Amino acid sequence: MKKLSKLFVVALALIAFNVYAEDSKVDVVTTASIVNNGKALMNAVSAKGGWLAATLNDITLTEDIVIDGKFISKEKVDRKLALYTQDDKRNITAQFTLTAPKMIVKSPNFRITGGTFKGDIYVEAEGFKLDKSSTVIGNIYFKTKDQQKSFVMDKTAVFKGKQSVIK
Description:
The protein is mostly beta strands.
């Protein structure tokens, strides 16, 4: 079953999505970034990455991870970090842990789906979301009150920490 899940994730990576970089005049066709190490993950969530980054295992970083760039998926601004694998019916089959000293969110409408993030999150964009089955063990700091107000947490998500606006 685990092998089937990984094959499904790789198959998803081969499907091209139309992604439009907000500041670009050229339409960009990208695939999902499926990663299994820190360096690849850092590239996948950079401004040069794609709208979706998915992990295949636990990853521990010794440096901060920066989620940057503005992407369009299905005609809306969207950015996703998938800390899980799924089967062909989109059921989560395995979840993973990403550990970093700090996650800095600069991408609007960024969401963490599945798995666990261990570390503090600094939000500098609106629309941050803890999506289905995600867990955060750490604090969430927002740059503005509006960013905090736009924060959404799915009913299946877990947050173990405090949230506040920092100046």
